[in-house]
Amino acid sequence: MPGSVAAYGLGASGGVFGLLGGYYVYLKRNSKYFDKRGVEAGLKSMRATVGINVANGLLNSKIDNYAHLG
Q: Are 11 and 65 a contacting pair, CB within 8 Å?
């Protein structure tokens, strides 16, 4: 397209969020093998971390949220 500018998102966000997602699923599927309070604390912490990072990405125009949200 004439006049278009190619832009690339760089960083480890996609990998980090992918690992968090995988760990979240692991904990949910295997929660019967772990202490219930520990699993709930871990899941709550992950949700807060993801929420803060997505909010930060929405508020900062220089952050590419496509990697965060998959």
A: no
Model pLDDT for residues 1-47, shown as the tens digit of each residue: 555 666 666 677 778 888 888 999 999 999 999 999 999 999 999 99
Which letter, b or e, does each residue of 30-60 get, where b requires 16 or more Cβ atoms within 10 Å of its Cβ? eeeeeeeeebeeeeeeeeeebeebeeebeee
CA–CA separation, 1 and 45 (whole Å): 44
Quote the CA–CA distance of 1 and 61 in Å, as a whole number: 23
d(CA 62, CA 48): 22
Distance in angstroms (rounded) separating the CA atoms of residues 23 and 25:
5
Q: Span 56-61, mean pLDDT? A: 86
